[in-house]
Amino acid sequence: MKKPVIVPRYKGLRNIASFIQNPIPYLMEFGEVYGKTYVFYLAGLIKSSMTTDPEVALHVLRKNHRKYKKSTIQTESLAKFVGKGLLTSEGAYWLKQRRLIQPGFHRDKLNQVAELMMDEVQVYFEKLEKQKKISLNKAMNELAFKIVGRTLFSVDTDANNLFELSDVVSELQEYIIKKERKVYLRWWFHLSGMERKKRKRARDATKILDEYIQNRKKTQAEKGDLLDMLLSTRYEDGSGMTDTQLIEESLILFVAGHETSANAMTWAFYEIAKYPEIIDRIKQEALQCEGSLLERLKQLQYTEQVIKEVMRMYPPVYIVDRVSKEDDQIGDWEIKKNTLVLLFIYGMHNDPKIWNKPELFDPERFNETNINQIPKGAYLPFGSGPRMCIGNAFAMMEMKIILSEWAKRFEYKVLTKNVGLKPQISIRTDKEVFVEIT
Ligand code: HEM
Q1: Which domain holds residue 29?
Q2: Rounded to an integer, what distance in angstroms lies between the CA atom of residue 111 and that of residue 351?
Q3: For residue 256, how far is its CA from the centre of ligand 1 (angstroms)?
Q4: Which of 64, 105, 162, 167 is the most buried if burial means most Cβ atoms within 10 Å?
Q5: How many domains does the chain have?
Q6: Any atom of ligand 1 within 6 Å of the Cβ of 383
Q7: What percent of the chain has pLDDT over 70?
Q8: Pairing mode, if any, of strands 46-51 and 340-344?
Q9: Which atom of ligand 1 approaches the CA of 399 most closely?
Q10: Is the pTM of this model over 0.90?
């Protein structure tokens, strides 16, 4: 590992408006010119070390993770709005919470929610069947939200006002990203009253969740879901989670658990529409699998390959950030304390030095043989190390059900052309993608 090249500061200021809209093309270009790891000034101001090097990614996330923490984008900017939940907390508090919540995502627990997921998908697809033209983005967002609500919190989103949460969360994410990218305009966000307005929106979200949680406490109904577990779980000293903790952890699961899967599914349907043979294989696999739902899901190997390839081409979380807590070293690269390291996952997943013709959508990259050829650390849609996504298996199960049930039930045509990337906290499409269902 060589010392990274420093990109001249003025280059971080060139085309700043379009960089803010979508930094991905610029970062891809920098990668070609300056190599896998380089030092770059975001908006000409914030010094960061950008990397697409799998070795660095594994070093920071796994091997030497103790020397790194999340940046303030998550632990302060996002936490200001959604509180300190698993995604936004750090250190000993995070570890205590992770240990507490992890069993809720254990494979046995997931197996119990598979039927619920399937049920939500069937009901939702029946509703879609009655429409001719649908917005994929809206449909996938709604469906993923319903799945998290139903499986983890036993919420019937049609009967409760929790749906408003989805809009609030989306709005807040857009605001936070805008604020982070337009660092030089932060003062304006405060003076204009925008910050106050958004904080009020965040409070609306917590109020909705609070009401729901208080209601559950009052009725003492046992649903056997994650919320039950959060309510009944005890720390070593015998105390339970406070109301604030319950709200914060629940909100984080809604935030982290629905838009990522929804975006992956929107990209999946957009991309595979170009390859009728891929859709046909997914459909045949879904029709031929047999046994219980869990056995059938295990047999959907090709469908899984397709999902993995979608997340290679369009990784929902396209940048993972860390800051060094102390000096560190990788080869000749001396990493000083407080260095912001940005792991550019999209760049890594689309690097021609790692992937043969990365611009081609090819699920065979993930077949039983080829998957072993992928260099270690080069494919990280769910991150790696102790802070790897807690909903990893949940999301894979959910996406397999959605993709296979869709292929069995619908034929469709994409109506929206020239769809591009809109990187927010996860990568959205830059316009709404409409499809006609036949
Ligand atoms: C395709 C879907 C998903 C993708 C691509 C994804 C990706 C990720 C990534 C990359 C991280 C690590 C971030 C970092 O290290 O800084 C993460 C963390 C997290 N994800 Fe996911 N995620 C998905 C679905 C879900 C679901 C369905 C849930 C919950 C229901 C969830 C809950 C979380 C939580 C709570 C964390 C923080 C974990 C911790 O720090 O302990 N995610 N996710």
Answers
A1: 5-437
A2: 36
A3: 6
A4: 162
A5: 1
A6: yes
A7: 95
A8: parallel
A9: 1
A10: yes
